[in-house]
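Example record

The entry below shows one chain as it appears in the dataset: sequence first, then structure tokens.
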Amino acid sequence: MIVTLKFDQKAYSGKMDGLIYYWHPRYKKLLARRLPENPRPSAAKQRFAQVARNLKALQPSAAFQADLLAYLRMLQEEGYYPKLNSWYLLFTKLMFAFADRYPDIDIGTLTKQEIIDGSLSCRSVKSAVEDLLLPRVEGYETLVAVM
């Protein structure tokens, strides 16, 4: 939901009145969403949180981030993933596709050094596309920056 603030405020972020407020950089608007009512802990949520923390800890290089962003723009020109709007969302999509393709590799404990040393297919956008982790679009061959 789009939010309009009084008192000439430009932005607000945080929790208030059962809503979470945040600034969306692509839409350049303040948005709000409801707080979850009763978040119950489960093994699946704990596993997802562990994987998310590990993916954040991988800290891909700036060149790899730029390649992901360029690839995202190529995908959107071709009509793929219209709602994806950041390199990080594409990165998580890539890593979960990698986990589906190679179930013996645990992305919850995978390190950047293991990815680079093992020449895993998620190390660059080009290798990910060639391993069919991401859709093939024209111009992907130039995106060779290593994670």
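Notes for this example: The mean pLDDT is 86. The helical segments are 43-57, 62-78, 87-101, 112-117, 125-130.
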